[in-house]
Write a structure and sequence with these properties.
The structure is a single chain. By secondary structure, the protein is an all-alpha fold. The protein is built from 16 helices and no strands.
């Protein structure tokens, strides 16, 4: 018994992340090393190709993002550290690719079309435009797939949202405002993340919306909250257009 009690239990990943946040550089470096395969896989999922940690710039972006995730993680966010880190890595790599895409066309375009570029720059510009749109479409699809999985956790589906979505712009704007209030309040946000439902009684005193309206738009408000709480770059842009 004495020997068994003398064995020091290894801290959980979340506990190690807390230690990193408290300044433990040894654990920080250890986790950055140990989770390189996880980082490479997360980056590869975004780039849709094999990622070489030694040569691909995207991996370096992912490594920095993982470190950022360690420093900013909070259990109050309602997800495990690895789930949170995967989202941070994904977002940073997408940001990087979008920036690079805006600077110039990908190498896969420039190299085979180098000679043609001298002859017909209009075609090259059109090809770059098509590539840009295809890339954006792929990212949107990835976000929608991720959102679809998240909605299931809240017992929601896209089909339901189509039916319950407010038809008038004013009603949509009101529902989005309520979701933002829900998201911006720490106590209310924690309640939703834990209970997977809206605390209507607590909301009534914070928004200028009737209880009946809140109950009618409950599922739509919950869906907007999920988007606000996630790393959804394109879907958040879409929300701006809604209200």
């Amino acid at each position: 018994m004495g020997h068994r009690s003398a064995i020091k239990e290894r801290p959980s990943l979340e506990q190690q992340v807390t230690m990193v946040q408290n300044g433990d550089e040894e654990i920080q470096n250890s986790l950055l090393q140990a989770y390189q395969p996880f980082i490479a896989k997360s980056v590869s999922d975004v780039c849709k190709r094999y990622i070489d940690p030694q040569t691909d710039d995207e991996f370096s972006i992912g490594l920095l993002a993982f470190n950022e995730a360690m420093l900013s993680y909070s259990a109050d966010k309602g997800s495990s550290f690895l789930s949170f880190a995967r989202l941070v890595v994904k977002r940073r790599v997408i940001d990087y690719i979008r920036q690079e895409k805006n600077k110039s066309a990908p190498a896969s375009f420039d190299e085979p079309l180098e000679d043609a570029q001298m002859e017909n720059p209009t075609e090259i510009t059109a090809a770059k435009f098509v590539y840009s749109n295809e890339l954006d479409s792929w990212y949107r699809r990835e976000e929608i797939k991720d959102l679809q999985a998240k909605l299931k956790e809240y017992k929601l589906s896209f089909e339901e949202l189509t039916n319950v979505s407010p038809k008038h712009r004013d009603a949509r704007e009101s529902a989005i405002h309520v979701a933002k209030v829900l998201f911006s309040c720490d106590n209310l946000r924690s309640y939703v993340l834990q209970k997977k439902k809206i605390p209507i009684k607590h909301l009534i005193n914070r928004v200028d919306v009737s209880k009946k309206t809140l109950e009618r738009n409950r599922k739509y408000i919950l869906a907007i909250f999920i988007i606000l709480n996630g790393d959804y770059i394109y879907l958040k842009d879409y929300l701006k257009g809604l209200g």
